[in-house]
Design goal:
The chain starts with 8 loop residues before the first helix and ends in a 6-residue tail after the last helix. The relative contact order is 0.07. Strands 15, 16, 17, 18, 19, 20, 21, 22 and 23 form a 9-stranded mixed β-sheet that branches. The protein has an 8-stranded mixed β-sheet with strand order 7-14-13-9-10-11-12-8. A 6-stranded antiparallel β-sheet has the order 3-2-1-6-5-4. Helix 19 links the parallel strand 19 (about 565-570) and strand 20. Helix content is about 45%, strand content about 15%. It is elongated, with a radius of gyration of 31 Å. By secondary structure, the chain is of the alpha/beta class. Helix 6 (about 255-265) packs across helix 9 (about 305-325) and helix 16 packs across helix 18. It binds phosphoenolpyruvate and magnesium ion. Phosphoenolpyruvate binds near residues 473, 475, 514, 610 and 681.
Amino acid sequence: MADGETTPPEGGSRRLLKRLSGVMAEPGDGQTRLDRIVQLISDSLGVEVCSIYLRRGERTLELCATEGLKAEAVHMARLQVGQGLVGRIAEREEPVVTADAQNERGFRYLPETGEEIYHAFAGVPIQRLGAVLGVLVIQNRDSRVYTEDEVHALEVIAMVLAEMTELGAFLGEGDVDVAGAHKRPFYAAGVTGQEGAAMGVAYLHQPRVNVQNPVAEDPAVEAARLEAAMDALRGEVDDMLSNDLLGHAGEHRAVLEAWRLFAHDKGWRRRMMSSIESGLAAEVAVEREQTSIRARMERIPDPYLRERMHDLDDLSNRLLRKLAGDDPAREVPEGAVLVARNIGPGELLDYGKNLAGVVLEEGSIGSHAAIVARALALPMVIQAARITTEARSGDRILVDGDAGAVHLRPDDHVLSAFKEKISMRAQAQEVYEGLRELPAISLDQQRVDLLMNAGLLTDLPSLAPSGADGVGLYRTELQFLIRAKVPKRKQQADLYARVLNSAGDKPVTFRTLDIGSDKVLPYMKRDEEPNPALGWRAVRVSLDRPNLLKMQVQSLLRGADGRGFNLMFPMIAQASEFEEAKAIVRGEIERHRAAGRRAPAWLNIGAMLETPSLAFAPDNFFESADFISIGGNDLKQFFFAADRENERVRRRYDTLNASYLSFISLIVERCAAVGTRLSYCGEDAGRPLEAAALCAMGLRTLSMRPASIGPIKRLVREIRFDELRAEIEAGIEAGEVNLRARLVDWAKRTGAPISS
Ligand code: PEP
Ligand code: MG
């Protein structure tokens, strides 16, 4: 567009885009296409220079084609991301427009290009969904300011270039190897969600849509497609909201409310329609908006707003899938490693055992999704930055759950080192198997019962091979989470019967329904709460809705059919709640008997100690409980006032803090004073150093994921609890806040095997 020309921007850019897609369709190698493209752009926009810089490696941008700058600079001129105006555009993911480039802050002169004579400069990132693939620049000699329309046209062109890059348009003979084209190895250092190693293929929870032709053949057709997809999307979101069952995916109401707002947002629709007017295909118009959302998302410090941006991002994915045609029958391939931004426990259970591992871009170690991953023994890495942007379904992926690391598209060297690691693990497993029949007795002759945590029928086969002495925590809510409706009494009773069958003569402790907080039943309508972890959950729900508890107790009694079992209530915060819940259970036993059914041979009723308040309950509470189990995951979150799902605060506080261990010791004393059995069933019971410290503080029953039983048994058999207790007391005496360093030293000195 020359000075003063009044061609409407849409018409102009549309013509240009058509010609661009023509270039794509022509035969030729990557370099020839790029050369044609810069020529086309400079002709159509009436600019003296048009250049394309593409990413090479992690941080380098290389001039790959130019019209106007010196031809010999192509593939020679390079900049680092962040350097000069071009580097700044790539780093900040936003355009730079200036009438006088030389005097713009950060300008860096590349002598080989001969660009010193050009003053006017406009550059935009070539990016797709958070991945910057390069930079598109136009320049002119005179000090003019490019108009908004011109910059808009440039952005639209850049969008098409990004799609072309992704389609591999610049690959082939005479390759232009584009770094961002999801071909290179990518490494993400995250956090351990669940130990273990997995090797498989990435499977995106929200798959990318492949855009075959980024340019609209006919904008009216594209506009109609977008309108229809948005209509369908709005209908779907409205349905989910008005439907009592809240859909099957378990979406939270707050997310749905946000989706509804966005789905009806006129600005969003208008911006997408205007991209279509400019000549983009409907999918690319959606992605253009999504790209700018992602760029903004990374810069927003406020977690609430960031979350809402994520909601909009998720909604855009849905819209894209509507445009592409939903594909409900996606098969999870063998050895799939699930890659997601985040996932709820119910959704993860839906994938179940089909997975080899899980990688989350966000996620938290204290979340129930992580617990489900543990129950399924799935190696899991959380907080793996950019993984959903970098991964493509089908990419080879290695999950190192021990180190909290992910290797995507690894090179051969990494791959063989990883295989080595997997075989070392298998060897360690053999050592643990050798201990299976032996008791966990410490060198100072203290016996510890090692029980396993479970929640799915598929967990039960692990009971015998793990060498567990029984099931210390059966999370009954998992059965409720994987269904679209409350399981019927018969279904529940069948499940409990099968659990007891598989356990044989080993004891099982069933925990009554523990829902609320992040365990949201998709079919249960509930009010939004400001602090769900502190809200209406666990036994509070059972006491307010006793029918659910009654039905569960009846199912347990029927499933047990005369066999004995342990029953415990989650999150008892005050003694009276325990009494109330017990009264409901007693009532059901009476009814069961009165109906002529067999009552259990024995029934121990216990409470989970998950709030500090219960540690200070009156003596008669400790006397009346048959047993107490410390739910350390929740207890720790309430003790330190640090949300177990919020990595930022969770990691500040260590189980091996003197304060927490002293508190555990107080609970041990209170139980010991009245002879009540005590166990610990939070995740820390399965972590070697933590488990050793808990034993030193007096715990003699630990319940953990089955895979931890071998390593913990080996550890118990090789240490003295009295020695470790003395070490802890010395640390407390010395006023140390965190005893971890001291305990690691102790382990080194004594040779205690603390790596699992
Ligand atoms: C706990 O809080 O430690 C516990 C075992 O219960 P959950 O993790 O299921 O909340
Ligand atoms: Mg709990």
